[in-house]
Amino acid sequence: MDYRAHREAFERENLARHALTHCNLCPRRCGVDRTAGEKGYCGLDDLVRCFREMLYSGEESELVPSHQIHFAGCNLRCEFCVVAEWNEQPYAAREMNVEDMVKKIAYRRSQGAKTLNLLGGEPAVSLHGILELLGCIDPKITVVWNSNMYYNDIVDKLMVGLADIYLADLKCGNAGCAENLLGAKDYVAVARQNILKAGKHAYVIVRHLIMPGHNECCLKPTLTWLAENIPEVKLSLRGNYIPPAEAVSAPRRYLKEEELQCAKDMAQSMGLKLIE
Amino acid sequence: MKNKPYKRKPGDFEIRILKNGRVVMITPDETLLEVAQIVEPNSSVLPAKNGDKGKCRKLNQ
């Protein structure tokens, strides 16, 4: 974390809280007053809720062991989401107690956590609570913003200097698939712009979940965009797609090993830097 | 038996046993991860190879 940004964390928290009074944190622009108990698309009022914190070694190798804090609530409705239950009913998760969480962060560091990994749901919709938390922890901690990157400028501005690493989960490669699979037609355009912005002030790793059968419409356009715009970025291709029990648009099968290899070959042929 | 698949509720964990014997844990917590390590020390987060049988693999996003 940048020390100056760390000192400003509580001031930034106030700005984020003010944004909740007519919520415009994400492109949904619900406009509800979350401080008055109203809930927007993400299902959250102004209480920040966490459904899990754990030490995890399944993230990209340079980040692990990583202390994951899962914030409930999301601004997307991915049909294949593996924590959909927490995003559809975020109020089922416990309210975060900042003091307790600070102790857990210290404990996880003593267990060997290399990074503090903020994820969801989508952390952006809990921005005010995250800023408060970051203001209370040791600024030497390496913070990972593990996000779908679907948020408005205010989030990027208030996180400058606080997140060391953006683990940008860039899904889909066109508006049609984003609308059908994520429930957000403008997702790809917004997320790509936010990745470019993040790259100006932080270290970025782009993660792309390979969807079975979505090579031409999603994988290829994503790799092409990366190669043309940020060819130096580290790319993590994820082969762990899990078909939902019930699907309307989402693929109904697991990815095959050869499909993952094919995707990696395609990325390498475009000169992209793959990481595991 | 219900006709529709069970829909996870907050607090539930889902473990799938696939036709090829592969075991998939969906977003396991620490306890389930420990169980997976005991059952299959070489478990991973990567997709199984074709014909892979009896491996316990964790899938988390």
Question: Would you write up a description of this structure?
Answer:
- The complex is a heterodimer of chains A (276) and B (61).
- In chain A, α2 runs antiparallel to α5 and α4 (98-110) packs across α5 (127-136).
- Chain A has ten helices and nine strands.
- The two termini of chain A are 24 Å apart.
- In chain A, 36% of the residues lie in helices and 17% in strands.
- The mean pLDDT of chain A is 97.
- Chain A has one domain: Aldolase class I (TIM Barrel, Alpha-Beta Barrel), CATH 3.20.20.70.
- In chain A, strands 3-1-2-4-5-6-7-8-9 form a nine-stranded mixed beta sheet.
- Chain A is globular and about 45 Å long.
- Chain A has 276 residues and is α/β, with parallel strands linked by helices.
- Chain A has helices spanning 3-7, 9-19, 84-88, 98-110, 127-136, 153-159, 175-182, 187-198, 215-229, 257-269, and strands spanning 49-56, 66-71, 94-95, 115-119, 142-147, 165-169, 203-209, 234-238, 273-274.
- In chain B, α1 links the parallel β2 and β3 (56-59).
- The longest helix of chain B has 10 residues, at 30-39.
- A three-stranded mixed beta sheet of chain B has the order 1-2-3, covered by helices on one side.
- With 61 residues, chain B is of the alpha+beta class.
- Chain B starts with 13 loop residues before the first strand and ends with a strand.
- Chain B has one domain (14-59).
- Chain B is flat.
- Chain B is 16% helix and 20% strand.
- The A-B interface holds A 51-52, 54-56, 58, 82-86, 89, 92-93, 209, 238-240, 242, 245-246, 254-258, 260 and B 4-12, 18, 24, 26-27, 29-30, 33, 45-50, 58-61.
